[in-house]
Fold:
Amino acid sequence: MPAKPKKKNTPPRFLSTDLDGTILGKPDALERFKETIHKSREDQSDFVLCYNTGRMLDDMLDMVGSGRLIEPDYLICGVGTVIYDCGKGSRIKDFAHVLEEGWNLSVVEDILTRRTQARLQPRKYQAPFKSSWYLEDAPPELLQALESDLDEAGLNINVVYSSSRDLDILPKHANKGNALDWLLRHFSISPDEVVVAGDTGNDSAMFSLPGVRGIVVG
Ligand code: GLC
Structure:
């Protein structure tokens, strides 16, 4: 029987990384991260860096502008609700159409207020496709019941709970993984060229994308 050809190990050329608790938190590690990205850009001219974060776009643009973070190629912000092309300096508008179906912000706010003790996060953390709340130590049953209530109201949403406090209600297709998947398809980048990195609940959708390599930060 002829020997099977060895599968070529495709070198990664696309990094999608979370910020808080992943590359932010330890200044020395952030410096090493910057050096690694500089080197990757030197070695591979088509290397792509994408920050994939719960933070909002304005906050991210300030952080990148201040030089605290190495300049990325793309930003996925607000837990997969906005994709921003840094080269063009604009949001990718086509992506927003994907999110509209089954989404109604005022119905979400009404149900959360009537059925839970959750407190709305400050206005700067809210967005047209993101309703974010604080709810400490919410048990899984409560989150499931909330999801059922929102389903019954005719919405098509995702409930994402992170850091035992942050409760995000998002359109069904809005999460860090789906936004990344959309971006990869849009630019015909194969998942086996992709590395994802993250540390908490809202990062799990990135790790679920078939074919990507993952770095879980403890
Ligand atoms: C970021 C956002 C917050 C969100 C959290 C978890 O901290 O600012 O609104 O709830 O990520 O996704």
The helical segments are 27-43, 57-65, 93-99, 105-115, 140-152, 176-186, 204-207. The CA atoms of residues 38 and 70 lie 9 Å apart. The chain has a mean pLDDT of 92.
